[in-house]
Amino acid sequence: MKNRGYYGEFGGAFIPEILVATFDELVDAFEKAKNDPSFWKEYLEIMSTYSCRPTPLTPAENLSHYFGGAQIFIKREDLNHTGAHKANNVMGQGLLVKRMKKTRVIAETGAGQHGVATATMAAKFGFRCTIYMGEVDVKRQRPNVFWMQRLGAEVIPVKDGTAILKDAINEAFRDWITHMDDTHYVLGTACGPHPFPEMVSYFQSIIGQEARKQILEKEGRLPKRVFACVGGGSNALGIFKAFLDDPVELVGVEAGGKGLPTGQHASRLASRDGSIGVAQGYKTFFLQNNDGQMKETHSVAAGLDYVGVSPILSSLKEQGRIRVESATDQEVIDALSLTLKKEGLIPALESAHAFAQAFKEAGKLNRDDLIIINQSGRGDKDIFTIADAFDDPSWKEFIQEKAHGYTL
Amino acid sequence: MDTPFNNYLKKKMQEKDILLMTHIVLGYPSWETCLQVVETMVKAGVDLMELQIPFSEPMADGPVILRANQKALEQGVTVQQCLDFARKVTETFDIPFFIMSYYNILFKYGVERFAQTLKARNLQGAIVPDLPPEEGQEYLDLMKKHDLTPVLFFSPTTPDSRMKYIASLSKGFIYCLSRKGVTGADTNFSTDLASYLSRCRLATSLPLALGFGIKEKADIDFIKGKADIAVIGSQTIRIVDNEGSGAVGKFIRSLR
User: Fold this and answer.
1) I want to staple B249 with a disulfide (CB 3.0 to 4.6 A). Which of A83, A251, B44, B170 is the partner?
2) Residues of the domain holding B226
3) What is the rounded CA–CA span in Å between residue B122 and residue B84?
4) Which spans in chain B are helix H?
5) pTM (2 decimals)?
6) Of B47, B61, B219, B228, which one is the catalytic site residue?
């Protein structure tokens, strides 16, 4: 084992012996790619022709006016192909898979966005593809399951454990332990053993590189704050990285679920419930009991209810370089509703956490302050969850009629 | 190396052409059954045992052991109960027992406290599949300090140079994974396996334990002479699940 990827005391590579050689190979391939200028060029080329890079930075004039404080800008990762920042990571890892000459990819998915993105990449590059998804998430995000299957991926519902994202990750590792010769595991977030945290945030750093350039070009100055939701942490690190050396406050927003005091949340850094542990191959803050058993998490957003968090974010939090807050399910639904009506934008429930926190703070800032919110994905996929949250009667009627149509 | 444990292994290896190490998941299906299974296994001539403290994220385990882990946790099994049970069996039965678990269990308990507790309860050592030696320096030092045996792994993908490195940190015996994949799946007992085991043999003078996928006498016959210890994990859990703890003794006796 070579460089083990530590960020302060967090990170590492706690992997079974059978995977050590595979990780060494991956670390080598990634290091070579990073040092090869043609690799990043190839990456930019594919992101501008297959996805929608650079994504725009949208001035949210109505929201800015509504809060009467900072000028709000929104980084539009929802305009990527498949509707989320996940494409950035997946296409980058896809190019690496080609270099490693592997022919099959596997991935875990929570909200389904990473699964759909991986399935499109596999279709484009001609890889076989298997997606592991917790059974609970399969039910929450059925439209994404439909698309993964249409794209040619095999979707395996994971029934073990809590049947959500962490369990899908375990199952993907079990597959990889068995099939590493021809298979690459496209981990979807900046978690897991080294080199995944570094590699995923490397590909996602394109978000912040663009956003920083865009705001400087448009406004001639840096933002005061940048807001991003934090599940595993890939979109947050993606936008934060470019601002780490700037006098910009970086705010990560975790899932507050039903409220931190209820214990039904997924706030590993913002709550007092997280503690340091080692699971899924790396050391970070986890929501776990005193024995080290992982706890159940809750969020209205399937992509945020993960028990661990990127070791890079744990380290930045410990250093005091980032601030981590949480937003409750209800605050998120309210923020989403306001964004829909004021700007005609449809953030994913995950991304709406960043909006909710920014809305709490925008009015307290000055009119010449700038803030950026990372809209990591679009909310169309959440139509069933959002319709339930709004308790929309005409939607229910439609679903009932539709169901009736199938039973005839 | 002339530790009492190595002397025990040597003596047993002179008496038998292969030793058996079995595995139970603590608290599964119940504490009562666990105790019966240990007793049955010891009486049937098992030479060593792994006692697994269940973990919520058992990454290297296949479906049989994974579900046993989950079931045990659902039933409220705690680390303290597991260590108390371990004390009971080391007091009652005269074979070496190892704790097997994932690193987070040790980490949260405190690695030093874990080592002290193992020593105080007469356990022989520990097997931690997600702790490669590069991450386990503190663990290896503390196990050494408390005169315990930390068992490390070889796998078919481990290059010769790394096998030598792992062997240099090992005590007791080396746990050789028979193949890629998780616990409980089928293993192809083939010439590939034989040449892998001879590679393991060249890398260390310690006894070799072979695990993953050993289910029946034919498997054991194949590895006799190539490895020193056969590890039976998922298969006895399947037997307890399907036929009850009473069937385990007959199964173990049928193996050699």
Assistant:
1) B44
2) 4-254
3) 11
4) 4-15, 31-43, 63-74, 79-92, 103-109, 111-120, 137-145, 160-169, 191-203, 217-223, 234-243, 247-254
5) 0.96
6) B61
Residue B180 to residue A22, Cβ atoms within 8 A: no
- pLDDT digits over A27-72, tens only? 999 999 999 999 999 999 999 999 999 999 999 999 999 999 999 9
Which residues on chain B place their C-beta less than 8 Å from a C-beta of chain A? 55-60, 62, 66-67, 70, 73, 78-79, 102-105, 107-109, 129-132, 134-135, 152-159, 162, 166, 177, 180-182, 185
Given an 8 Å threshold on Cβ–Cβ distance, is B132 in contact with A166? Answer: no
Tokens of B180: 């890629």
Q: Give chain A's domains with CATH numbers.
A: 6-48+85-200 (3.40.50.1100), 52-83+205-388 (3.40.50.1100)
Domain count, chain B: 1
What DSSP letter does each residue of B163-225 carry, written as one string? Answer: HHHHHHH--S-EEEE-SSS-TTS----SHHHHHHHHHHHHH-SS-EEEESS--SHHHHHHHBT
The active-site residue out of A51, A75, A86, A102 is A86
Tokens in use for A250? 């970086």
Tell me the count of A-B CB pairs closer than 8 A.
110
